[in-house]
Every structure is written in C-alpha cells, then in structure tokens.
Predict the structure.
Amino acid sequence: MGRKNFDEYEDEEAGGRKSKSQAKREMTALQDLGVRLVGLSVSTIRDLPVSEDLREALLTAKGLTRHEALRRQMQFVGRLMREVDPEPLAAKLDELAAGHGLHTREFKQVEARRDRLVALAAHGDDGGDQAGLDQEVGSILAEMPGLSGDELTRLAREAAAERAKGRPPKAFRALFRLLRQAREADLAGTE
C-alpha cells in the first residue's frame, strides 16, 4: 500500500476521525480539568456530580504527597475523566471561582469601610474632622439601615484609641464583624 497524500488525510478527518494531535489536546485538557478538581476542598469534591470511581480517585489524589504517585494518580483521573462530560464540571469550577471572587471583593469593601471609620475617628479625637466621621456613619446607615449609628461611632473611636495606645484590636475586630454581618444581611435581603 502506498503513502497517503494530504487529501486522503483530510477526508479521514472530515469523516469523523480525530487527528492524533487533537486527541492528545483533548486528553491534556481533561487532565488539566482533573488537576483543578483535585484543588477543590474535600466537601466540594463529594458534592460534584461525578461517578463514584472518579470521586474516589480525586479524593485519593488529594491525599498523595509523593510526586510520582501523584503523577500516576492524575493520569488515572484523566483516564476516568474521558467517561465524563467535562462541560458541567468546568461550569461548576467557573461558578466556584466567581463566587470566591465576589466573596473576596465584599470582604475587602468591608475592610476598607472599617479602616475609613477608624481613621476618621482618630482624626476626630484630635479635635479634627468630627463631621467626616458623622458623614461616613450616615453613609453606612443609608446603605445598611439595620445598624446603630451610635454603636458604629463608639466602636470606631474605641478602635482608634486601641491603635493609638498599641492595645490588642478588640474593638477593631468587633467593628469589622458588625459591618460584615450587616452587609451579609443586606445582601441576603436583596436576593
């Protein structure tokens, strides 16, 4: 039998056969998805809509520390991934990543708001900008009406005094908890 020319290969690919390179790219993509799945927490892996064999393989890979053993287990995970539709798993991973990003953003916003309150309270105690503290508290109360303005001001002043005297940040943490709980309640109320 003679050598195949380019047109014959093209006909085979058009007939539904994948090239060796394409098959290898798909297998590598499935292994990469498996690596991302192993990076999830144990409880999240248990909740994934996958076969029991794949779930056990993912949990086993999570417990391995030796490089060669982990490499072989990840190849096994990749082989089991061939039997699974990767789209729902990739969508679930993207959803989890987006949720984490949202949580981090909310956390940083609450931190920034707490830091602003404490900074304004520190300036207010020096005989400075008391109006700025009152304005910031008013802004927070407009966004989260369930809070007490007096409690916010008191905690901000206590946190500023703690920071100035080098004491442990008890009020600083209490102010953060108060703002975070109010923010979570506000978000839960809007859904």
